[in-house]
Amino acid sequence: MKRVVVKVGSAVLSEQNRIAKDRMQNLVDFIAELKTKYEVILVSSGAVAAGYTELKLDKKVLANKQALASIGQPILMNKYRKMFEHHNILPSQVLVTAANFNTAGESQKAKDTIETLLQHNVIPIINENDATATEELVLGDNDQLSAYAAYHFGADLLIILSDIDAYYNKDPRVHNDAIVRSRITCIESEELSREVTPNHSFATGGIVTKLKAADFLLKRGGAMFLASGFDLKDARSFLMEGNHIGGSLFQTKEGGE
Ligand code: GLU
Q: What single DSSP character describes residue 195?
């Protein structure tokens, strides 16, 4: 069975300082569907956003952001648990820091846990351990974390479900003639050095962190699919029916489609 990592961002999981329940439910239903065909690992953001629903701390202060993540992570997991329960799926929480991917030995330990969870049909839900991950331990954004997870945990594909529905030839928020780049085989270095511009107040990344994630995987023979997390039809048709209609696939020429 093929293995996939699905990454979902805070912009998809929250709206107006609340958890976006319908979108989260759609995601959970989609993952249950994917599980009929793939081994699925979920990387979920949204801890800080979920914490903010309970306590309005100024998230620009690092210590507050860490506290919000610490409050929000169990709220998020509780919601996932309830939603997966309807599908008879048991979720688990895996919190990582950069140290878990520093050496092959370290990542192997985390992989052993992931393998055991998958063998027992459990959905591992990964997030950064924001409460303790500062300075040298910080991964920072879950786009890159999900690329490390995909690589170190042996996934065939990383799927990023985002408020950005594809990679365009120019910024679609500024240019209405921007067109989707549906297949990308390599990323130029200047595309990676642009400023990081998240679209949403709880999001850490933006297109640049997604390109960095794709670049990391492309250089290691991996692949990534970027599609909308608001409307899952492109991700569904690509993954369940093998039809690439919308969204962007990052894969080398040798990878084939
Ligand atoms: N780990 C953060 C959270 O769960 C999000 C990081 C990101 O959005 O990339 O809130």
A: P
- Of the ranges 8-12, 115-119, 138-142, 242-246, which one carries the lowest mean pLDDT score? 138-142
Q: Which stretches within 4-136 are classed as H helix?
A: 10-13, 21-34, 47-52, 62-85, 104-119
Pairing of strands 2-8, 157-162: parallel
Tens of pLDDT, residue by residue over 78-98, are 999 999 999 999 999 999 998
Q: Quick check: helix, strand or coil at residue 37?
A: coil
Residue range 39-71, pLDDT digits in tens: 999 999 999 999 999 999 998 899 999 999 999
Helix (H, G, I), strand (E, B) or coil at 91: strand
Residues 65-90: b if buried by 16+ CB within 10 A, e if exposed: bbbbbbbbbebbbebbbebbeeeebe
Choose the residue to mutate in 8, 141, 197 for probing ligand 1, maximizing ligand atoms within 8 Å of C-beta. Answer: 141
The architecture that CATH gives domain 2-255 is: 3-Layer(aba) Sandwich (3.40)
- Picking from 183, 150, 203, the residue whose alpha carbon sits closest to that of residue 39 is 150
Q: Is the pTM of this model over 0.90?
A: yes
In ligand 1, the atom with minimum distance to the C-alpha of 130 is 1
- Domain residue spans in the chain? 2-255
Q: Whose CA is nearest to atom 2 of ligand 1?
A: 45
